[in-house]
User: Fold this.
Amino acid sequence: MLIFGFVVVPTLSSFAELGAEKGQASIFGLVATAVLGLVLAALQTPLYRVLEGYRGWPQWLAHARRRRHLARKHLLRNRVDALALTEQERVGCLAVANESVLAAFRSHPIISRYLTTDIRKGDAWFALLNEQLHRYPLDDRQVTPTRLGNAIRRFEEYGYDRYRLDSQVLWHELNAAVPDMARQQTDDARMSVDFFVSLLYGHLLVVAAAVADLAIGNAGRPWLVAATIAVLPPLMLLWYRLAVVATDEWAGAVRAMVNLGRYPLAAALGLTVPDRVEEERAMWHLASDLIRTGFHPGQAALDTYRSALGEPGAGGRPSPTQPTLPAARPSSAAPAAADGT
Assistant:
């Protein structure tokens, strides 16, 4: 708002001429900033979807970007694996079955070139590669056209991948069941990402207004308006990168909510978590499917996991199912993906 007032609309910056109205100008700036923040907060889902690559992207561009990110993810995976096998070989604990894998990495024209450089950079670089790899979802089908979309999608799929607990469908129930500390941690982590996304869109609005100001010919200081148009886009790229990095804390908070909250969530739903992971995955699939699609006869298998109010139930052993990974749903945890992604 300050950049807009001082550069795009020079009359707002003439505080010397306002005299006694300086206070009014300050109030105007504060109110306009607050209103803009509320508008961005209300529109956060569609604004996030554009940055995640779900809305407003031509189909050909979205497919091309998705293929690029898939290739980048696979390259990072291979580089991490090659470094890990090289370290195992160095300490003398490389399994015989992995010797051929390491030989294939070393003979590959691209991976071998990266491997030489990665080894020279040491353990800190290995950790950095792992960090970049973990900003992608595990399932290749969930890779999106943008970095921010992938960074968010990785924790949207976390509960389903580990436990078949669709955290996007059960988010509000999960949010109500977890301890206050876990809920607050998630809100604080998301706030950092929201801050950088708001800066990005705020700068975009200022640039659009500055371009219109120059095109109409009403700019009081054209050189300053032109400088603003040149400087703000690089800052927008910086805010985008920082938003991607800030999702690391958000991902950790959501991961903690799923890991710690699934037991109180099951108790609140009148379910008993089975001892075996395979059975727990079957239970959460049934519970998520019940809420997502409604009741159908096959969901009667959920009765096996139900317990009387206040009494522990016995977990059964129905055959686990292998459903397809559901698309993201709107939630306060993360902007949703488009259906069918």
Notes: The CA atoms of residues 100 and 106 lie 10 Å apart. The mean pLDDT is 85.
